[in-house]
Amino acid sequence: MHIPERQQGIALAVLAGVIFGTSGIFTRAISGISPLGIAASRLILAFFFMLLLLCRQHAFKELKRSVRHYRLLMLLGIISSFHFLCFVLAIQKTFIANALILVNTAPILVLVLAPIFLKETITRLDLLSVAITFLGACLIVGFDRIILTPDHWFGDLCALGSAFCYALYVLVARQLRQTYSSAVIMCWFFGLGGIFLVLGGLWRVDPFFFAPTRASFIFLGLLGVLPTGIGHFSYNLSLKYIPAAKASTIILLEPVTGTLFAALFLQEIPPVSSIIGICIALSGIGIAAFSHLTSTAETQRSRP
């Protein structure tokens, strides 16, 4: 049974958003590993996962061929390392609500940058879906708990930096996706990002691992394979089929599924405001998916 490409793209973005939601419970279960150690390890584990996938696909010739775009790939690795590092610093240097809300501004940045760098057309439904989904995400993580103070400006800036890096990643990956497979792109994304983080950790004498438990290594492995490896791979693959603005909107499923996973596995029951936020976010994501399906169908009908 052949699934239309437009539906494949939406399904892959939804899958990525669902899997991204597991990162919170996995990270919460890890102890004895520094934040930089967690970020670097998850990228390195995801890199080896991509290598196994490349072996299965016999795509090492494509990987070798992609070296000719080394400038763009190096940029992708730098973006990867800064995205994860800025997110870790944001969690450390500002309030959790500040970090999550500011990081979730990434779809708004994509909405602004996609028409400039990717020449993608932005519709009113795109604007509406991003606005509604972002509002829902803010309610989920607790918009009322955001606190802007001079003492936390660095952490807030890091959260915005993480969002900006994520938006740049979407733009660069969307461009590379026209030439190379997702496995090849993500292999460079994870590998170079992991190397840069390890070098940064060695430079600042970060301990990485100081008292990890056996369970911590298990959850670290799950973190590297599921939300990092499979999640980002699915998201990158979706960029082949759907515009960057719509993909980045659908990916805001992460706070929805993260909240649901926390309630299911950690018994953290969300407040009423978060439940309302989940409903609003799902409405915005539904609008993004609907606008893509209808616009694609209209384009196909207009062809001779």
How would you characterize this protein structure?
The protein is mainly alpha-helical and 304 residues long. Helix content is 77%, strand content 0%. It has one domain (5-302). The chain contains 14 helices and no strands. The radius of gyration is 19 Å and the shape is globular. The two termini are 26 Å apart.
Write the layout of secondary structure elements.
Layout: H1 5-20, H2 23-28, H3 35-57, H4 60-65, H5 70-93, H6 96-103, H7 106-117, H8 124-141, H9 153-176, H10 182-203, H11 214-238, H12 244-250, H13 253-265, H14 272-302
Parts with pLDDT < 50 across at least 5 consecutive residues: 297-304
Query: How much of the polypeptide forms β-strand, as a percent range?
Result: under 5%
Overall geometry: globular
Category by helix and strand content: mainly alpha
The number of distinct structural domains comes to 1
Please state the CA-atom Rg, rounded to the nearest Å.
Answer: 19 Å
Number of helices: 14
Largest sheet: none
State the order of secondary-structure elements, H for helix, E for strand.
Answer: HHHHHHHHHHHHHH
End-to-end Cα distance, whole Å, is 26 Å
Report the count of strand segments: 0
Mean pLDDT: 86
Approximate helicity band: over 70%
